[in-house]
Amino acid sequence: MVVKRRKNACNGILTNVTKENKWKRVLYLKQPFPDNYSGPQFINSLRKNVNLKKVTFTEAVLGSCYVMHHISSVILFVIIFTYSYMGMIAWESVFAITLLTFFIGYLLYLKLLNETDDLKSSGYNFISLKTIILYAGYAYGFSPVCQTLTATVSTDSTVATSVFMFLVNIIFCNYGCDVVMVSSALSMNAGIFGTVCLVSRLSSRNEVFTLLTCSVVIFVVWPLLRGKLLEIYPTTNVPLAMCLAICVTASMYPLSRVMTLLYVALHIFITLICSALFVVMQSMKSVTLMFQLCMAHGKKHHLIKTIAFQGVANYMSFNEITA
């Protein structure tokens, strides 16, 4: 009897829908249907993945090169520290290369600013250069402090802290995406802090000053120059990544062949395999559903709200739900 009554009630609702009162997707009208009832036209205006942008394999590779730029830069700094720590290179050579690289990058950065009309005046350039020279003086003055800062801490703890800070630097670096987790300040400070932990194991004040200057070039100046360069000339993305990869591979090979192979494998995995997986898995992206609710004031209808539902189902499960 209960089943028959429920069946009769459902038939009555369907009769009301088809003959007397057709169900409408509005909030202002009182309708003779249950609150949880929705007619077949409820999702007529539904749209799926409105803002979804399909990424090609080439675009994915270009985006992955942004990541490899910074990873290669961090690894290159660690290699320079290892060479200095093991006495395989003189601090004068490192300082000369760092100074030459800095001035070339500084002039190139000013040229890029001039092309984008961001260059304010020659006074601005003078102030920037004066600030950099002032920092170099402070770094040289505090080199003895940095050298003995972690003297009472074990080398293993210092190296582990440096590795963690460099990972933070890589994770929070700005790779051209405006997302919440990006923090250029946190990334830069983590890189400098990891540098301070490492340079405390060097033997001379000049080596400490040289590595501090090199860290500023890699963790502060280079990200700014790289971002502006790729903004104006995006086609230089892949050649730049290849040049950095060649430099890292050539300098790492005398230290460890195993680490060199691991670096090459990491480079291939991020730039090619991860890009291919990203393109293939785009079809599995969760469905974004969007529809509109209309309310009225008197006889005038107003669109007041657009509600977006982020579903965790894929297209197949979505079709099953709406079937």
Number of helices: 11
The percent of residues in helical segments reads 55-70%
The overall average pLDDT, rounded, is: 76
Low-confidence stretches: 1-19, 291-323
Give the termini distance in whole angstroms: 29 Å
- The number of domains: 2
Order of helices and strands: HEHHHHHHHHHEEH
The portion of residues forming beta strands comes to 5-15%
- Give the overall form: elongated
Total beta strands = 3
Which secondary-structure class do the elements indicate?
Answer: mainly alpha
Biggest β-sheet, characterized?
3 strands, antiparallel
Strand order of the largest sheet: 1-2-3
Q: What order do the helices and strands come in, and which of them pair?
A:
Blueprint: H1 2-20, E1 47-48, H2 57-85, H3 91-115, H4 122-141, H5 143-147, H6 155-171, H7 184-199, H8 205-232, H9 237-252, H10 257-280, E2 288-297, E3 300-310, H11 315-322
Antiparallel strand pairs: 1-2, 2-3
Report on this model:
With 323 residues, this protein is mostly helical. Helices cover 64% and strands 7% of the residues. It is built from eleven helices and three strands. The protein has a three-stranded antiparallel β-sheet with strand order 1-2-3, with no helix packed on it. Helix 3 packs parallel to helix 8 (205-232), helix 6 (155-171) runs antiparallel to helix 7 and helix 7 packs antiparallel against helix 8.
